[in-house]
Specification:
By secondary structure, the chain is mainly α. About 75% of the residues lie in helices and about 0% in strands. The protein has 5 helices and no strands.
Length: about 170
């Protein structure tokens, strides 16, 4: 039962961390201080979940090098996923910014995921995989860039969520 509760807590911490990371990273241009704090809290939660998962649940005794690797790759994985998630959720609020965020998030999260989980592929397959991800992200960037440049996206920064009219208040 204790193991089930621990695993549940890790999932809650992961998802809260990703939610806060995605909000912080995508909305940072609108209020740098507020959303930087949210981003830092989100990354801290995700990192805490990763460490708890490795040490408490998996009983992994990590060397200093493994600890640094876990910290670095957990943070880059959370940032990459946050870029994708936040970008999808808030394209209208900052379309050009998001046109860059989502493809970069795909590349960052994919590489972090591969390295964090120690996937061992032959060099040729690994290079094809990375080239495919970078190629797909590049195509996505072009599509998002043109969508962001379209006249329908010509609106004040912030889109709908930062309108001052709050129902007559």
């Amino acid at each position: 039962m204790k193991n089930m509760i621990y695993k549940y807590l890790v999932y809650v911490i992961y998802f809260l961390g990703i939610g806060m990371t995605s909000s912080g990273i995508v909305l940072m241009p609108f209020n740098a201080v507020r959303y930087s704090i949210i981003l830092i809290i989100g990354l801290s939660l995700f990192l805490a979940g990763s460490i708890f998962n490795e040490i408490v649940i998996n009983h992994h005794k990590m060397t200093a090098a493994e600890s640094v690797k876990l910290i670095t790759l957990s943070l880059t994985l959370a940032l990459g996923i946050g870029m994708i998630s936040g970008g999808i959720s808030h394209f209208k609020e900052s379309p050009m910014y998001v046109a860059y965020l989502i493809p970069m998030g795909i590349v960052i999260s994919f590489i972090s995921f591969m390295l964090k989980n120690n996937f061992k592929l032959p060099k040729k397959e690994r290079m094809m995989m990375y080239a495919g991800v970078v190629g797909a992200a590049s195509i996505l960037f072009i599509v998002l860039f043109f969508a962001a440049s379209s006249p329908s996206m010509d609106m004040p920064p912030g889109g709908d969520i930062f309108k001052m009219d709050m129902g007559g208040h």
